[in-house]
Amino acid sequence: MNNPPHDPPARSAQDTIPVGGSLRTLMAQDRMHARLVVVAGVFCVLFSAIGLKLTMATIISPMPPQQQQIAPQVPPIPKSDPKGMIAGDVALPQVHRASIIDRTGQVLAMSLPVAQVYANPQEMIDAADAAHKLKTALPTLNEQETKRRLSLNKQFVYLARDISPAQELAINNLGIPGIYFEPGERRRYPMGSVAAQILGGVDIDDHGVAGVERFFDKRLDSDRAPLRLSVDVRVQNVVHDELQSAMDTFQAIGACAIVMDVHTGEIITMVSLPDYDANDFGRAAPDARFNRAVTGMYEPGSTFKLQTVAMALQDGVAHIWDSFSSTPIKIGRFTISDMKSDHFAPWLSLPEVMAYSSNPAAAHIALDAGAARQQDWLRSMGFFSRVPIELPEAGRPIVPSVHNWGVSTTMTVAFGHGVAEPPLSIVRGTAATANGGFLLKPTLLAPDTAGQQADAPPAPDATDTPPGMPASAERLISAANSDILRRILRLDVAKGTGQKAESPGYYVGGKTGTAEKIGPHGGYLKHVNVSAFTGIFPMNAPRYAIYVMLDSPKPTAQTHGWTTAGWNAAPTASHMITRIAPMLGLFPDTQHAATIEASLAIPMRPAVPRGYRALGPGYDPGTAHLHEHEREVTGHAGHPHTARKATSTAQVPARDLHASNDVDRLAAPHPRDRG
């Protein structure tokens, strides 16, 4: 039997002997395998390092949330918040507008970094959810309006303006797609209403629109160094408080006060009420924005008699021993008289004219000087021009045309009627009478040299501009006449209408002034006054001029029905001086009172020196001018210098002028005298 054939046995892989290219392929595969192992090992090491770093950053030593967000984006800038109250060691973004500080370095205005929030609605996933989340970071946000805006078919909508860095971080942490930020800055006024009218404000683009913000707009934008003002916020606060108290007590509709250095012209304080929060400039009422110290125009009343007397002394028209009639002056149907004249003689010396504040006597002095000399004096003292101050709101005075400046205008201007001046002009003129006779340019800028105000500047000499006084100062009054005027001003506070302005130990000198207000239809309003006091302290070594004005004060039981300056503006000035003088480095000197008072004394009726003939009864050139004018009035109807024509030119309406006088009797008056 034959056996079936058998298949040959199969070979195993080991039995296969590779030859040629097959061997090379196998070796390449082995090398690739080794490389993959190495790469895998490297990746394992890298991922282990990353994992360790994440563990350190999130679990072992986590970064604060704020720094976690912004640290990678902020370069290593030196710390700008030493106390770490803003955001750790992170410096705030730089702002381009310089800050404004007071003379002591207190910040009055500064710019803070802010952001504007905007969105691209087309990138929104859920507008309602986004609006709800934004509301949590911005509580004042209108959620429904925001939802509507985020649903618009637009690529750009504003959501919020001027948000703080903290709010920006909070919104950023919400992770809402389509929300973006635009950097900017916002002007802030840390002191609120303090010096609001001085500072002014800026618009939405951070450009100055009022006050020093506008006057120094280019300077604030181009130089980051702080702008230092002459204002002292300590004094500003005290004066504001006292003025507000007086305004409330006398129910005045407005008020202002100024304190100025009589040797440098620096404005130490300037307050105007009502005022406003400087942070809300855009929403402030027009009356609150109105700076009564430089924009307001008021008839100065009897404070202008100081200029009439200064003119008479400096131009040689009168001497302190000359006498002038206080008898009422009748011009046509107008009468110039005193409100209360039974306590002084029919003829008054120059010191008495000021102490008793006689209108007819001041008118006679002006008549002796003449219209041309009066105009020249007022022009040289700056009363015809805009007061020079670094405020764009400073206005121009209202004065009659010199071509129609007749006799009645000359007389009424002599006691502060028929012209309207800003209070700062009155302060400037008052300072010139007491600082040795130098007219200064007021300024809101602090001196360049630190500590310049530490010591009182030396008393001015009779010829040159004294040390410490600006080179622009112009001498208009001699040193001798300035000394006389200081004594007369001191007399007015010691024995005259300004007695309630006295502040023991500070030897205040000054002049009261009361003027009735002009009504809406052109006539004067009875018993509606502008009451003012202008003064100097201390008078034995003048340092500061002070001015206080109350608009339409009401009578009180303490004033016995009076609304004149001696009863309201003068005591307000006294309260201010007593409180602010120590802040200014001045302290009351009562130990040497007798010596100081003797150095400031002037007789009410100075004796006439031998060889001189005093003006007075029987020798009064002004009366001759008045009689000549009366002949013109009665003999030439329609003559340009008639009382009606001249009075109209001087803006004095038809009325008896006696009611505008400010003879402030300090004893309780008889009921018939109350007006």
Number of helices: 21
E-strand count? 18
Strand content range: 15-25%
Query: What is the top-level CATH class of the domain at 237-660?
Result: Alpha Beta
**Main sheet summary:** 5 strands, mixed
Distance between the termini: 167 Å
How would you sum up the global shape?
Answer: elongated
Approximately how much helix is present in the residues? 25-40%
**CATH superfamily descriptor of the domain at 237-660:** DD-peptidase/beta-lactamase superfamily
Residue-averaged pLDDT, rounded? 84
* Cα-atom radius of gyration: 40 Å
Structural class by helix and strand composition: alpha+beta
Q: Outline the low-pLDDT stretches.
A: 67-90, 449-463, 635-675
Q: Which CATH architecture of the domain at 237-660?
A: 3-Layer(aba) Sandwich
Query: According to CATH, what is the topology of the domain at 237-660?
Result: Beta-lactamase
Domain Penicillin-binding protein dimerisation: 95-203
Biased composition (Basic and acidic residues): 655-675
InterPro entries: Beta-lactam/transpept (IPR050515), Beta-lactam/transpept-like (IPR012338), PBP_dimer (IPR005311), PBP_dimer_sf (IPR036138), PCN-bd_Tpept (IPR001460)
Transmembrane segments: 36-60
Describe the fold and architecture.
A hairpin with a 5-residue loop joins strand 8 and strand 9. Strands 1, 2, 3, 4 and 7 form a 5-stranded mixed beta sheet that branches. Strands 9-8-18-17-16 form a 5-stranded antiparallel beta sheet, sandwiched between helices. Strands 5-6 form a two-stranded antiparallel sheet. The protein is elongated, with a radius of gyration of 40 Å. The chain contains 21 helices and 18 strands. With 675 residues, it is an alpha+beta fold. The chain has a domain of 424 residues: DD-peptidase/beta-lactamase superfamily (Beta-lactamase), CATH 3.40.710.10. Keywords: Carboxypeptidase, Glycosyltransferase, Hydrolase, Membrane, Protease, Transferase, Transmembrane, Transmembrane helix. One of its GO terms (molecular function) is glycosyltransferase activity. This is Peptidoglycan synthase FtsI.
